[in-house]
């Protein structure tokens, strides 16, 4: 797929994931012990052979730039092509759509000058392990103008927002796209990933901009269903759609199931992240760990059960951490209890405290909090 350029759309609503994204863009939110959410789409593109990847950023993206750097850990530190940041466009407060064409219009020159013929456009909060080469072969086989990658919903899930539900004919051609707040069993949910020729994307952007239209899905796809050959490609692997605190917590807990973590991190290729040299985790005689993911650099003296512990976290003697997500450099002092908690980076829980959330509504502790 050297003839395909990747564009990752990092635009988001301001209240996305609330407390966890106060100090960072949602794409830079830690996930799975040592990764960031953006690592998954970048790794999928690189594993598929894409060597030109650009990120459309919005605001608070210093943490993202610090994490990605020049793209060396993803093999994107190159003389030709590589990793690019497309800076934000100043839009009015009414421009709230994630797929607003105006986010892309000012970068038409960059898209045009890129030497690839095709473009893969994707979001960042659909976490999966997918081989885009298979979708690209399907795109060419069907002689499609646009191919949208979708996932069939196996069961009803709560909390999803702004889902794009597809209807397809027997040959896979999309006949209708509905924008809905949720979905029902058996629905085909767009994964916000699509393949098309670069010239077509530029034409859609130009057409819509000249008419004052601005939404990629509504104005670019839905209004052209009859004019363009738009097909759906079915992704059959695991998919985690992170769109709220509850879904972040639920899919984090899914990683404790070996079958899911194996598929998400290894099935179609490795998921890469920023390399940080650190010592292995130290477990003392008083520690007890059950069914948990624990990154390197931690010191575990207490009990950890059904939890995800990020790098350099200290769990003191007599402390109990259950069903929780503790991000980098957190300190849990002696004789504390954390249950159903999401703790952001560098928090301090002092001795003897008891903090409990709920499986459906986890308690979120903001970055650098002292309790």
From TrEMBL:
Q: Which InterPro entries match?
A: ADP-Glc_PPase, GlgDAde_trans, GlmU/GlgC-like_hexapep, NTP_transferase_dom, Nucleotide-diphossugar_trans, Trimer_LpxA-like_sf
GO BP terms, alphabetized: glycogen biosynthetic process
Q: What is this protein called?
A: Glucose-1-phosphate adenylyltransferase
Which keywords has UniProt assigned to this entry? Glycogen biosynthesis, Nucleotidyltransferase, Transferase
Q: Which family does it belong to?
A: Belongs to the bacterial/plant glucose-1-phosphate adenylyltransferase family.
Residue span(s) of domain Glucose-1-phosphate adenylyltransferase/Bifunctional protein GlmU-like C-terminal hexapeptide: 285-354
Which intervals hold domain Nucleotidyl transferase? Answer: 18-153
Presence of the UniProt keyword Transferase in the record? yes
An annotated Gene Ontology molecular function? glucose-1-phosphate adenylyltransferase activity
- Native source organism of the sequence: Desulforamulus aeronauticus DSM 10349
Q: Which domain of life is it from?
A: Bacteria
Q: Which Pfam families match?
A: Hexapep_GlmU (PF24894), NTP_transferase (PF00483)
